[in-house]
Design goal:
By secondary structure, this protein is of the alpha/beta class. It has 16 helices and 16 strands. It has helices at about 15-30, 75-80, 95-100, 120-135, 145-150, 150-155, 170-175, 185-190, 205-215, 230-240, 255-265, 280-285, 300-305, 320-330, 335-350, 355-370; strands at about 1-5, 35-40, 45-50, 55-60, 65, 70, 85-90, 110, 140, 160-165, 195, 220-225, 245-250, 265-270, 290-295, 310-315. Helix 2 crosses helix 3. The longest helix is centred in the last third of the chain and has 20 residues, at about 355-370. The mean pLDDT is about 95.
């Protein structure tokens, strides 16, 4: 079976959806499927390459509209490809328009990663475009039951929804070296540190995290990632007197990131908006045996991190509650470690790459079988 994933970008571009698509694609190749990926390049030229057995077609990007790449060759490319099934990843309303215009004969599976949350105009128009595509899809895959429960878009198409978790190759994280802290100050090595990983953008809640750090004097934090708020957050940390307890590393390599998980005490995901629909970094930390502090959003985030089992879940924007959770993990490292072990077991039981890929492969076979008979999967 030849499956074509359609998304916005692909590795080495780092993002939650891109990580999921890469994990699925590589896992499907190992499962015996032929896999192609159609995404945007970040330049005005098209490139085709093979990465880990996955054919990656990066289309020339003509423009970027509200963070959505515009690829003029998308429709023609989808019409030219010979495959058995298209697997489209949203939110991507411009890409959805391209799929609708291409009118593929193959069945379509859609992975709904999140609703369009922030952009007011794009939210209304983009949601309607994506709803049209969902109406043509054989099946819509959501990563957690909470995605279905809290998405107005998915509520329109409940009969087509199915829950299949995101996958992670836990071996990449459990086998990482634990010496990434050698370049950090002595206090970070001897007393441990909390880790934040993600884009420095509004919905990640790093400003709230820094306020919490100011009232958690025994805590140290390493921030991995970059983004438009980086300068403002560094200035905020300086104004709060956190220069010696908070370190901004910027972007790091994948290998260094895995090592940082290993030598951290726990991960903090302090997101404040449901734009954080899942938090793949939670799975990465949990696969590394680390507990998580996250927030109780109307999304899949608290489904992944289970309160007082794999970590602690606090109300978004609650500085006092976030600070209390941070202090708890620093004051009681044995408790933090026990939750980290629970996290490893949860990843192995619920999010194993091979298991998730097998579930997708079974879905593809069902969808293609029904398509051959002129029906739809539900």
């Amino acid at each position: 079976m030849h499956v074509v994933h359609v998304g916005k970008y692909y590795s080495p571009y780092r993002g939650g959806i891109e990580t999921v698509v890469e994990q699925l694609s590589r896992g499907m190749v190992r499962h015996g499927l032929q896999v192609s990926v159609v995404v945007s390049n970040d330049a005005r030229s098209s490139v085709t390459e093979t990465r880990d057995g996955v054919r990656v077609i990066r289309l020339a990007r003509a423009a970027v509209v509200k963070s959505q790449p515009l690829n003029l060759r998308l429709v023609a490319t989808l019409r030219e490809l010979r495959c058995d099934l298209l697997h489209f990843h949203t939110p991507n309303p411009i890409g959805a328009l391209g799929v609708l215009a291409a009118r593929p004969r193959q069945p379509i599976v859609v992975s709904h990663h999140s609703d369009i949350v922030r952009q007011r105009f794009l939210r209304r128009l983009g949601t309607e475009v994506q709803s049209m595509l969902y109406g043509r899809a054989a099946c819509i895959v959501a990563a957690t039951p909470r995605h279905v429960e809290y998405s107005p878009l998915l509520q329109r198409h409940l009969e087509r929804c199915r829950v299949i978790h995101y996958p992670i190759d836990a071996s990449l994280y459990s086998s990482a070296p634990g010496d990434a802290d050698q370049e950090l100050p002595d206090a970070f090595r001897s007393r441990g540190f909390a880790l934040f990983v993600g884009r420095l953008v509004y919905y990640k809640g790093v400003a709230v995290l820094l306020e919490a750090m100011a009232v958690a004097p025994n805590a140290r934090l390493v921030v991995v990632g970059s983004g438009p708020l980086e300068g403002a957050l560094i200035a905020q940390a300086r104004a709060l007197g956190l220069e010696k307890r908070v370190i901004f590393l910027g972007e790091v390599s994948e290998l260094l990131l895995r090592a940082l998980y290993q030598c951290s005490r726990f991960l903090i995901l302090p997101s404040v908006e449901p734009s954080e629909a899942f938090g793949m970094v939670q799975l990465e930390a949990m696969a590394s045996g680390r507990a998580v502090v996250s927030t109780d959003l109307r999304s899949g985030v608290p489904y992944v991190n289970q309160h007082e089992h794999t970590g602690l879940v606090v109300a978004p924007r609650d500085v006092a509650a976030l600070a209390a959770a941070i202090r708890k993990f620093f004051d009681d490292p044995d408790y933090c470690s026990r939750l980290g072990q629970n996290a490893v077991e949860r990843v192995r039981r619920e999010f194993d790459l091979g298991q998730v890929v097998s579930q997708h492969a079974s879905l593809y076979e069902e969808v293609c079988g029904r398509h051959a008979l002129g029906g739809r999967a539900s």
